[in-house]
Design brief:
Helices cover 56% and strands 11% of the residues. It is built from eight helices and five strands; from the N terminus they run E-H-E-H-H-H-E-H-E-H-H-E-H. It is globular and about 45 Å long.
Length: 171
């Protein structure tokens, strides 16, 4: 059975894409990002999917992208911030080497910026980000084998912490 060597989950701005690329490079495996998969399948950027087709359509595409990636990908897998909302996705992640990249609001805002098109953060991004985290944190921790705090760490330090956490928490 094919499974990812590590799956990264976390909110927007936690560093999933950046840290995922570093981990893939260190481990000599490919990186796969389910947000990129969704955009490829839909033929348009995620903000346009939300605008044109609505969040339910995006979530259906996201769930399918995660299902395919979990079944096919043997490298580092980065999931979209809301992927854990789907109970089927959470069930698929059971037993996998999932790491929750946790980040504080202030740090996330610095990383994401307020001018980046993120559909769920479009209106009052700080308040919306906080609400998203309150909703999603239990699911991030539910699926995670390990939690790595990214605050005040460089991406290289976070990648090292992820590898250390997986060594301490093997399957």
């Amino acid at each position: 059975m094919t499974t990812p060597v590590v799956v990264l989950v976390g909110p927007p701005g936690s560093g999933k894409s950046t840290v995922g690329a570093l981990l893939a490079d260190r481990l000599g495996v490919p990186l796969r990002d389910t947000d990129a998969d969704v955009e490829r399948v839909a033929g348009k950027p995620i903000p346009d999917i939300f605008l044109d087709d609505g969040e339910p359509r995006f979530r259906a595409l996201e769930a399918a992208a995660v299902r395919d990636a979990v079944a096919e990908h043997e490298g580092v897998l980065s999931l979209g911030g809301g992927a854990v909302l789907d109970p089927t996705t959470r069930a698929l992640l059971t037993g996998l080497p999932v790491v929750f990249l946790d980040v504080a609001l202030g740090e996330a805002v610095k990383r994401v910026g307020l001018d980046v098109p993120r559909p769920l953060l479009a209106v009052n991004p700080r308040q919306r980000w906080r609400a998203l985290m309150e909703e999603r944190r239990p699911w991030y921790t539910e699926v995670a084998r390990a939690v790595v705090t990214t605050e005040e760490r460089t991406p290289d330090e976070v990648a090292t912490a992820v590898l250390d956490a997986l060594e301490r928490h093997p399957a």
